[in-house]
Structure formats: C-alpha cells, structure tokens
Amino acid sequence: MINLAGRDVLHGWGKFLFTGIGLGLLIGATLTMAGVFRGMVDDGQVLIDNSGADLWVVQQGTLGPYAEPSSIRDDAWRGIAGIQGVAETGNAAYLTIQMAHAGKDTRVMIVGIEVDRPETGGRPGAPPYLTAGRPILQGHYEAIADERTGLALGERVKIRRHDYTVVGLTRRMVSSSGDPMIFVPLKDAQEIQFLKDNDALVNERARTAANPAFNRPGIPGLLEAAQASVSQARSVNTVLVRLAPGADAEAVAGEIQRWKRLTAYTKAQMEDILVAKLIATSAKQIGMFLVILAIVTAAIVAFIIYTMTLAKVREIAVLKLIGAKNRIIAGMILQQALALGVIGFLVGRIAAGLWGPAFPKYVLLLPQDALSGFAIVMTICALASSVAIRAALAIDPAEAIGG
Question: What is the Cα–Cα distance from 26 to 16, expressed in whole angstroms?
Fold first, then answer.
C-alpha cells in the first residue's frame, strides 16, 4: 500500500524539515537542562572522590565543609589519628573567592593542603593526579590549578595579599558549584581565609584603644587582642581521614563523634549532603523547567500536526469518499507526528552536544538520558497527534465535492 504519510511529507518536505529543526532546538534545550542537573550531581561526586577521604571530620553540628562553614583547631588531627581504623589524616581549608586574572574576575575555590608528603599516597586532600608540572613542595606561595582557571604552568597569580607560582596543573578538580580549584599550602590558605587584612587590623586596634574597658586591670590589652586575632589562623575547615583496609567507616565515625566532640561524615553521608541537601533546590527548579518544556513541546507538536491536518481537509475527505478506513487516516497522521519527533530529537541531541561545552557549568549528557528522552519525545508526539486525529476523523466526505 502506498505510504500516504511519506508522500505527504515529501510533497512539503521543506516546511516539514524546518518545523522539525525548530522543534529540535526546543528538545535540545530540554536535554541541556537535564545535562546541567547531571553535571551538578557529577561535580559533587567528583569533589568527594578527588578528596581521597573516607571520612570528613568537621565542627560539631554543621554540614561542613562544603555545605556549611566549619572551623576546628588544626591540631585536632592528633587525637583523630590515634583512633583505631584511621590510616591517614590531612587538614584542609576551603574558601571560594573571586580572583582577578587576565583582565576579568574568575570564581575559584581555594583549597589549602598539607605539603609535607607530596608523594603519591600521601595525605588526603591533595589532587590525585596532575596533567602537567609537579606537586607543591614549598610551604608557601606555590599553587596547583585546575585547567579551567585559565592559568598556565609557571604563571604567577595574585591571591589576596601574595603572589603564587603555578607549579602544577590538574583537570576536573571543581567545587560542588562547578568552580575550578586552586590548591595552595595549608598555611597560606589559613591566612587567606582567617586572617584579616592590614586595614581591618589597624581599624580594630584603633577601636580597641578607644574603648576604656580594655584599659582596665585584668582586661587583655592590645597585644593580647592582636594575638587572639592571629590565633584564628590556626583553624581548618575539616580533617580528612583515610581509613585502614577493612575498617568500618560508620564505627570509626562514631568513635570520633563520641570522644572528640566533632561531627564525622562517611562518604555515603557526604554524598547525601551534597546531592540531597546542597543542590536540592536547584534540582527542583530544573525539574520544573523540564516539566514546563515537556508541556510546551507537546503543545507545539499538537499545534503543528493539527495545522498540517487542517491544511489537508479536502485530501482527507477524498480518502474517506473512496473508502479509506479511519485507521489508515489515523496512521498517516501518527506517522507524521512520530517522524517530526525523530527529526526533532536528532537535531536536539546534536545541538545539545554542540552548545553544551560552551556553558559555564558542566553539562553531562548521558546515553541513558538520551534514550529516555527519545522515548518521552515519541510518547509526547503520539499523544499530541490525537488532537489532529480526532479532527481528521470528524471531516465529512462531502468536503471532497463541496468546492
């Protein structure tokens, strides 16, 4: 039997093709939104995996170090290292800042790591691999940068008060927000995060001097106040813990919380914090956008197929007049809707793959999402064609001879 849908499409193939391309751009936007969500989840997973930790020990009662601020003494690792099941510990400090580079501001996460063991298998917190250069060997003013920062090997970059030399480059080291990381020695990160700048110290000392209460006996003087300010630099955001083979993560975390009055999170708990809590609102927003885009896609397909059907009222009436069954007419319209969906999906998938890398956030397009998207698009097209099918079946055969 002659394929009526194919002949009709070939008759107006240009209009049909451009309609499919327009629909494809909308589908591409939908796939990209799904890829943004997948990218956010992957950023959180990469952050956890690249830390090299099995436990995160943070300030009691907080969701640190990534979802909430956390501050603990940098000597807390001594007591943690003595707990059974702990193989290695490493202090770490995290701070997100705006860094000026190449004439523009770049949002980066500063990560302070201990550099006394730069060799492979050393303390957790350091980047697990480098794409160029070497590890940090000096206690001050050296840095390892993610390639997305735009920094080059050997380049000097100013971070707050000091200049740092980029001695190594790494890749896919990002925060949970997708910001590229710059690793610096822990003492430098403590200074960047906790020490006040010179103007703030001068102003604080002036206010202290002007306060009569600080001149009373038994009240700390200016020197003690300054020392108290400097002591803030002895804090870190977390102690990263690597467990011995066979150690139970939850049992060790329980011991730390019991004896050290700190909160310890396992890898599973940290994943739950980053995915279920930190990006929960963004996930809901993206989910709403996906629902809206699906509804808009269905409305557009329904309108297009309905318009194409109304443009063929006389032809459909002729088919009915010569005895064509309703299922043949319905099949023709359904095939056109599905063909439009196939063209639209192919265009959308190609478009998403082309413009995805240009997005500031990581867009992860998974094959299983593409398959699910294809099935959803076909379902939407099939359902949307029902409106046009009902209109076609209601056409009176007399329309064929009505002029």
Answer: 16
Residues 6+ apart with CB under 8 A from 44: 176, 271, 274, 275, 278, 279
Give residue 232's pLDDT band: very low, low, confident or very high (50, 70, 90): low
Question: DSSP letter at 326?
Answer: H
Distance CA 289, CA 258 (A): 44
Query: What confidence tens digit (pLDDT) does each residue in 241-253 have?
Result: 999 999 999 999 9
Instruction: Report the candidate in 153, 148, 170, 191 with the shortest Cα–Cα distance to residue 52.
Output: 170
Task: Please tell me the distance from the alpha carbon of residue 359 to that of residue 161, in angstroms, as a whole number.
Answer: 31
Residues present in the chain in total: 403
Angular region, 213: left φ>0, alpha ψ -120 to 50, beta rest: alpha
**Residues 6 or more apart in contact with residue 98 via CB below 8 angstroms:** 105, 106, 107
User: CA dist 358 to 32, 128, 313, 334, 365, Å?
Assistant: 11, 27, 45, 36, 14
| Cis peptide, bond prior to residue 128, ω within 30 of zero | no
Exposure string over 280-309, b if 16+ CB within 10 A, otherwise e: eeeeeebeebbeebbeebbebbbebbbebb
Measured between alpha carbons, how far is 245 from 253 in angstroms, rounded to an integer? 15
| Residue scoring higher pLDDT (196 or 389) | 389
Q: What is the dihedral of CA 201, 203, 205, 208, to 10 degrees?
A: -140
Q: Per-residue pLDDT averaged across 338-349, rounded?
A: 91
Structure letter (DSSP) for residue 266: E
pLDDT digits (tens, 9 = 90+) for 367-400: 998 999 999 889 988 888 888 888 888 887 776 6
d(CA 180, CA 108): 5
Token look-up 């150690």 returns 247
Q: What is the CA radius of gyration of the chain?
A: 31
CA distance 168 to 183: 9
Distance, in Å, from the CA atom of 242 to the CA atom of 55, rounded to the nearest integer, reads 7
Q: Is the CB of residue 163 less than 8 Å from the CB of residue 141?
A: yes
